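User: Can you predict the 3D structure for this chain?
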Amino acid sequence: MMRTEDFRSAACSTHGQESVLASDSGKAKSSRNTLPKIVSLFSGAGGLDLGFKNAGFTISVAIDVSDAAIRTHKKNFPRTKAVVGDLIKLQPVGVLDHVKTKLQPGQSIAVIGGPPCQGFSRANTGSLSSDPRNRLPTLYLEIVKELQSLYKVEFIVFENVLGIRDKKHVQTYKALIKGISDLGFEVTEKELCSADFGVPQNRRRIVLSGMRAGQGYTQVKPRKRAGLQTVREAIGELEEPAFFRYGLEPKDIPVHPNHWTMQPKSPRFLNPEVETGDGRSFKRLKWGAASPTIAFGHREIHIHPDGRRRLSIYEAMLLQGFPEKFVLEGNLSEQVEQVSNAVPPPLAHSVALAVKRALDGR
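Assistant: Here is the predicted structure, written as structure tokens:
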């Protein structure tokens, strides 16, 4: 069964809209002990995981191919079994083996995650339907099916870029929807924008949720939340970051361990008032507006509003809605990749709260 809930807006923000602000007051029926335990696939730094953790879920197992991302995960989710693993090589049975070391067979679990999106991304103008990364949604479903052999999978959450619905990928997308349904879940499709959930970023993503059929669960309906709206509100009061140099010590980085960036080398940084265009690799943020999607991976992170440098990693994290105490591990490219690939935690939190209401039949 397929339901579509479209949360798009012209401005992709709560400003000027009759938003439904989240109100989850009252005693919830579910508790951390009774909620399904989370298995996170393609976990990255854990943006989606953090949203579910903050909603009361336990993140039991997290798997990602990036060693730096798993080091980040272990630092911020110390009780989770975090595994460096290529899911293509692990295959479903390998994932099941890892889950069995943490959770007893027969337990209620859930699977969340978003496969790498480069094969579907509209920013990748050369993307092809035959890109091998486009098979990852199928692998995701195969893993869910394998987990169903020993566990009660109560729900799944799947996140990806809008491009997964484009014409060139439509067959993959239709197969994904059908595959979720065939596994015994009632599917809800949502197009969500981060700016509608308290994140100062116009970042739209597809979120598919599947609730185990026949259990009395209701539809997953995330509620929009008020919050930060502009770049200035998120990072306007920060002092200047440290610039990378060999031998840079943590004590030399102000405010936060990730408040650092590369030395600005382009001549364009010397004359920030000169119009430089709005290209992919030199996109300058505006103080009074929300940020676009924060980065494109590696070192292609956006330009600070003053035009004299790129954002620091910490500034990018705040624009993604990460809390101040969250710390990323790895070198600069690895940190940029983690923050750019992450699901904004406030958006993830609203999705998680919606799942809790659905589990409670509300």
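Residues 4-11, 13-28, 117-130 have pLDDT under 50 and may be disordered. DSSP finds nine helices and twelve strands in the chain.
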